[in-house]
């Protein structure tokens, strides 16, 4: 398996660390939202423990620790290990355009 | 046909032409009391115990390929009961006791060999943790010996004791641990279950569940037609999420690939099973002479039964660190299996929220040693509708309740155990 880092090019997967499925979103509840404790618990149970465990293309986080140290989102087929795309993970510094001289 | 030294001698005289097939190849019936999905060790053991212990003989085991073609044929054949946490300790010892009488129970040579397993330790802290686990085992009536480096050197002189980084200081030995012939375990349970009336149906892939108006599972759709059932049990570790998704369930499980390796055959060298405590590496020698070893998961979700090179390198580095002579043998084969990684490293054996559907899953990479006990407790659950006392903690709702059985102490992380 080789991963085409958008910053460094194609590298062997030993340079990367895997975080996992990019789809679970941490639940956000406002302090005074009035949500029942059960619903909050359900939402966190789902986020922390439950997984779709996709067989097929899955969006997932990889960290290029052996290269540019960017967080990436890859679309990878868990059945064949084929990559469809690798992009910078949104919301992290590396995804912003870098200006010359910075 | 009963297997014995006499049946062997008799068959030898007739040039081994007289052997009959070990189990039938029946067409699926329209209804069974219990259907087990998955013809691996666990599924077949479950069917055997249902028929033998609980008197339920109208049972089918449905297997999409051939029996034992999944993880039952891909593991490193180690058996042991050296667990420290309540829930695990008793369960795995139940399994060890069943291993000890399996061949007599099944009338089948599963080559169970109690050649011992030793977990090496390399620091004071690790020694203390191992001593504690050993004491837990002994309190529960399980054998454990804490050995120092001098004692181990007598039994395993070829290890790297003087590594400046990870010197071997001692190890926790369970002499009743060892290995068994994985395929023979599958075949032994298949034959014994078949003799008790169980239908083993291969090349029969489950493609969906049949539900009644209340949502109860009343059968399965398969590649060989619809089959109705009183109860359906899943024993499809590796593919649990995919099968559960057909029933609309989402589980605390991820599928990961674990690689295993075997070298060319050499003369007897390693007496038992050895695990390196400073990296993730373990090794034993098969009866054919090959050194069988493995290490960590590849670390990413996968349903492909193959891994990648970084882990090959990592495992071989572990081997070179603890046993440098391993560098002189050639690696012969390497393969991967799909592990049902639960979120605490412990299996799930429970009813599901769906009536009529039962779950046996989440074996992480420790399913082989559990085969007999898994079959027994799952059969108990299917027959009695209540958990077996030794599996009472392996509940599906333990994650929500915060009652995890986290042997490694690392929290909700599926790719570490």
UniProtKB/TrEMBL annotation, chain A:
InterPro entries: SoxD, SoxD_sf
GO MF term list: sarcosine oxidase activity
Pfam families from the UniProt entry: SoxD
EC code: 1.5.3.1
Enzyme superclass (EC): oxidoreductase
Key words of the record: Oxidoreductase
Full protein name: Sarcosine oxidase subunit delta
Organism: Aminobacter niigataensis
Automatic annotation (TrEMBL), chain B:
Substrates-to-products reaction catalysed: sarcosine + (6S)-5,6,7,8-tetrahydrofolate + O2 = (6R)-5,10-methylene-5,6,7,8-tetrahydrofolate + glycine + H2O2; sarcosine + O2 + H2O = formaldehyde + glycine + H2O2
Short name of one Pfam family: DAO
GO MF terms held by the record: sarcosine oxidase activity
Keyword set includes Protease: no
Cofactor requirements of the protein: FMN; FAD
EC number: 1.5.3.24
Highest rank taxon of the organism: Bacteria
Xref: Gene3D superfamilies: D-Amino Acid Oxidase, subunit A, domain 2, FAD/NAD(P)-binding domain
Compartments it resides in: Cytoplasm
PROSITE patterns: RHODANESE_3
Record keywords, A-Z: Cytoplasm, FAD, Flavoprotein, FMN, Nucleotide-binding, Oxidoreductase
Keyword Nucleotide-binding included in the entry's annotation: yes
Rhodanese domain mapped to chain residues: 34-78
Family per record: Belongs to the SoxB family.
Matches recorded under PANTHER family: FAD-DEPENDENT OXIDOREDUCTASE DOMAIN-CONTAINING PROTEIN 1, SARCOSINE DEHYDROGENASE-RELATED
Designated name of the protein: Sarcosine oxidase subunit beta
Protein species of origin: Aminobacter niigataensis
